[in-house]
Amino acid sequence: MTYELTVLLINALLCLGLPWVYNYGYAKQPGVGGKRLMGNRDDLPERTGVAARGLRAHQNQLENLLPFAIIVLIAHQVNISNMVTMACAALFLIARIAHAGFYLAGITRIPGVNGVRSIAYFVSLFSMLVYTSQLFLG
Description:
Elements: H1 3-27, H2 33-38, H3 49-77, H4 83-105, E1 109-110, E2 113-114, H5 116-137
Antiparallel strand pairs: 1-2
Helix pairs in contact: 1-3, 1-4, 3-4, 3-5, 4-5
């Protein structure tokens, strides 16, 4: 398996793992509980805190995983793998982990830097665009 496919797999696992985190937080919310989550989920209270942020982080990961997967799979199919594609894959993974972590923790700012979650998103987007350029240049 190529490095890029490995990174794609890790991103898919991140996507699969996020619901475990935010649903655990949701189960701890008053009026929810694990038993109600195992049911048909009718009339459950609105998600708050980490449960709401985690759901949004998961949705954002899904929205970014699909284009990344398409790019990686096309590059794999046409046998394009180089230092740029590997660096972009690594950068995408790091940015997506940071994005999810910042979102789950509710961190929007670190000392001296505002909008860290948005920055992580744009880094992942930029890495996909540079990766895609290799398909046209290769």
